[in-house]
Amino acid sequence: LFSPPASAGQLGTPPVPCIGPKRVHPFGNAAMHSAAFRVGWQARQFIDVVKAPVWRAVWSNVRGRYGADKFPACDEFLVSSTQVYKYLQNELLAAQNTNHLEDLCTEELWPVIRATGADYEKVRRHYSPDECHIVWTSTKAYVCSLGPPEEATAADGKFLAGARFYSVMHMAFAPESVRYSIDDIIFESQWDSEHGIKQWKIAFIGGPVAPVE
């Protein structure tokens, strides 16, 4: 299903991180609102926890319809997408050259990903390589969308699956600035009626800007 670089683990088509330097290095008065944001962050996560059994039931139904040998289990998808999410976040922050990430996203999204990596150049010049990485405190993933092709036998059909990530993290160079983020990543894959999912590619990334604590 997922086929990423070796360091991304057993995934395949990774997701992408919070796009834009503001996500990695918050500006403005976001810190002033962090307490209120955390309340909203916890409330939104509670809603997704409540909805999780429903999404699992929908996922199981779709998997049963399209074939367990052709479509991943819900937990497999969430574990893989979480690994890719973290991998991409770190690569956009630390990598001097992000060309190796091109195969992880759709053709339409790649220019955005490439530009995001360039946006972090000032951060990389200011801090040492050892400081340019993310320290993850926690990350929880939930299914937030699922769209099978219109026809199970459609040779050119596409599958869409989305994951929502609730993360607590900080940059190694700023341990005092804790971030509570919510990010949605939508994956897309061509559907092969004989072999099933081909390769997940990131088609969309979004989510609210996360203020610091």
Residues in helix, %: 25-40%
Radius of gyration: 18 Å
The low-confidence parts are 1-33, 208-213
Report the mean per-residue pLDDT as an integer. 81
The total strand number stands at 5
Backbone shape: globular
Strand content: 15-25%
What structural category arises from helix and sheet content? alpha+beta
The helix tally amounts to 5
Description of the structure:
It is a single chain. By secondary structure, this protein is α+β, with helices and mostly antiparallel strands. Helix content is 35%, strand content 23%. The protein contains 5 helices and 5 strands, in the order αααααβββββ. The protein has helices spanning 21-24, 34-66, 74-94, 110-119, 121-126, and strands spanning 134-147, 158-171, 179-192, 196-197, 201-206. Strands 1, 2, 3, 4 and 5 form a 5-stranded antiparallel beta sheet that branches. Helix 3 (74-94) packs across helix 4 (110-119). The radius of gyration is 18 Å and the shape is globular. The protein starts with 20 loop residues before the first helix and ends in a 7-residue tail after the last strand.
